[in-house]
Amino acid sequence: MPLSDTAGPSDAGKRLDNFIHERHPEFSRSRIQRWIEAGRVLVDRIPTRASHLVRMGEHITVDPAESAPLRAAPEAIPLALLYEDDDLVAVDKPAGMVVHAGAGVHSGTLVNALLHRFKHLSQLGGDLRPGIVHRLDRYTSGVLLVAKNDAAHQRLAAQFSGREVEKIYLALVHGRVKRDEGRIEAPIARDPVRRIRMTARLSAGRPAWSEYRVLRRYHRAADPSATRQSFTLLEIHIGTGRTHQIRVHLSSIGHPVAGDALYGAAGKVPDHLMEGRYFLHSHRIRFRRPSDSREITVTSPLPADLETWLSTLTPAL
């Protein structure tokens, strides 16, 4: 069924693809752009480009093209397990691995590896996300829970939505964090300018809070004449699970995660240490086992590459 919208005063000046995505967020921006290129989007009955700047009063119609159903396929990818029972498995996800297909990534994902390793996974996430209860960013490593059956998925999801799951991360951040502990409460929303980013600088957004505790402070100098750089290793407890939450919150207080170029750390860490990741690790997760409510704690040790990062630093007094 065609979709129909009329641009209002607040829509003037928006790109056509952004306008449609805001009105119909259930469709990805890349999919909307394909429809525009195929002539399925009309502005006042005329096909136009995705970069067209919408004017107030323009009538936009979209004739959605149905995509062929997608399914994730098993792939023989190594998978490190931290815990397993009849209901779930805790995986030690490496940095660089995408959790499930999307945004141009269709293979090499955690889901592809899971389908090869296990015969049965929960189907509540659909054919592209079997077993996936929660996610980690691509370049974040560490413990992640996967449900083997629908009942376990529902009970774990209820724990996450009820904020009953304890999630602890380790992060090395730029700068010397002065306070030994603190709490960041700031709503998180999509950045209106750079759409691949989130932001905590708007009054609107989804509520989010993160607590941190300083584990150790460091400094580093590349050579005797270089300005000394400061770093702080933090333990972080998040009570909500918003997109990029830890990275956004820490950047908002002037301490971006080491190596995280998207949120302000560009050029501050030598390339040979970055290796396509930043210093953020899902260290520990505590939850109730779906079958009997027994409390389970799963811990992922700091990966060797992050230990190498720390070895280049000098503890500060």
Question: What are the main properties of this structure?
Answer:
7 helices, four-stranded antiparallel beta sheet, Pseudouridine synthase, globular, alpha+beta, ten-stranded mixed beta sheet, 16 strands, 317 residues, Structural Genomics Hypothetical 15.5 Kd Protein In mrcA-pckA Intergenic Region, Chain A
Structure description:
With 317 residues, this protein is of the alpha+beta class. The chain folds into three domains: 60 residues, Structural Genomics Hypothetical 15.5 Kd Protein In mrcA-pckA Intergenic Region, Chain A, CATH 3.10.290; 81 residues, Pseudouridine synthase (2-Layer Sandwich), CATH 3.30.2350; 150 residues, Pseudouridine synthase (2-Layer Sandwich). Helix content is 18%, strand content 27%. It contains seven helices and 16 strands. Strands 5, 6, 7, 8, 9, 12, 13, 14, 15 and 16 form a ten-stranded mixed sheet that branches. Strand 5 and strand 6 form a beta hairpin. Helix 1 packs across helix 2. The protein starts with a strand and ends with a strand. 34% of the residues are buried. The model has no long low-confidence stretch (mean pLDDT 91).
